[in-house]
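Usage

Read records sequentially. Each one opens with the input sequence:
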Amino acid sequence: MSPTRVQLTSQGRRAALRMIRRHRILELYLTQHLGYDWGGVHVEAERLEHAVSDELIERMASALGHPQYDPHGDPIPTAAGDIEEAELVALADARIGHQARAAAGGDAGCGAPALLRGAGAHPRRAAHRERSPAVQRSHDHRAGTSGDPRVVGRELAQLLLCQELGA
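and closes with the structure output:
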């Protein structure tokens, strides 16, 4: 038996993007203005996204300077329903020698954000994969600022989703 495919109507897509916008603006507002940790803000935003008004969301967006990304590095849909769609790949699967930008830290519920943050990784920061000088068949996965890149293990590199930028 083949899997059932579901496709949203244009009205359904608009509703979904509206809810994603609400959720991501709430996450960003809670982290930037109320001190929530970006690793645990998801649950609080889940509670609030169905209760707040559109006016409150737009005021939050304005107070935040109409942001493009949430605290996890995911794009925030515009009020018009447009969203940046980038192809993401785990840092562990990125092409060797290519630069990448960290985009998201895996599943927010699995503890990945705290692990990644502890390793110096953070959404929207540089990341890349290179051959390890110590072992020719091995690869280093580096994340963090260009002045302070840190090697992260394969398990963390599997959790860190990136947008490849090229060589």
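Summary fields computed downstream for this record:
- The radius of gyration is 18 Å.
- The domain at 8-85 is CATH 1.10.10.10 (Arc Repressor Mutant, subunit A).
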